[in-house]
Amino acid sequence: MMKAEQLYEMLKKVQEPKGYYFNREKERVFDLLEALLTNKKRYGYMSCPCRLAAGDREQDSDIICPCAYRDPDVEKYGSCYCNLYVSKEWNEGKIPRPYVPERRPPEKTAF
């Protein structure tokens, strides 16, 4: 089974060229990566650890990491909902770090 360190290196190589960086708070990042791996073992896919998954891949398709909300959240707030993926400016403290509101529609969590 993949370890959090392996997942970190793999995702970093893929996401940084796209402008998505891991939060500089490594402990938080590794906690989230461990939770993603736990969800992969539990559901068969890496659902967002900060949201309640239904355990149905189709219903959860919007919260499979990186979730459908990451891009607009990082664009608007400099960070995704979990604070796993952030912009370079967010990591460098050059922009405010407001609370990132939940974008997932309530009907997606009614199960």
Would you write up a description of this structure?
The chain has a two-stranded antiparallel sheet with strand order 1-2. It contains four helices and two strands; from the N terminus they run αβααβα. With 111 residues, the chain is mostly helical. The termini are far apart. The longest helix is centred in the N-terminal third of the chain and has 18 residues.
Question: What are the main properties of this structure?
Answer:
about 110 residues, two-stranded antiparallel ribbon, globular, 2 strands, 4 helices, about 40% helix, mainly alpha
Question: How is the secondary structure organized here?
Answer:
Layout: H1 4-15, E1 21-22, H2 26-43, H3 70-77, E2 85-86, H4 88-91
Antiparallel strand pairs: 1-2
Strand content: under 5%
What is the makeup of the main sheet?
2 strands, antiparallel
The order of strands across the largest sheet is: 1-2
Individual helix count:
4
SS-based class: mainly alpha
Order of helices and strands: HEHHEH
What overall form do the CA principal axes indicate?
globular
Low-confidence stretches: none
Percent of residues in helices comes to 25-40%
Give the distance, in angstroms, between the N- and C-terminal Cα atoms. 30 Å
How many DSSP-defined strands? 2
Mean pLDDT: 96
Report the radius of gyration as a whole number of Å: 14 Å
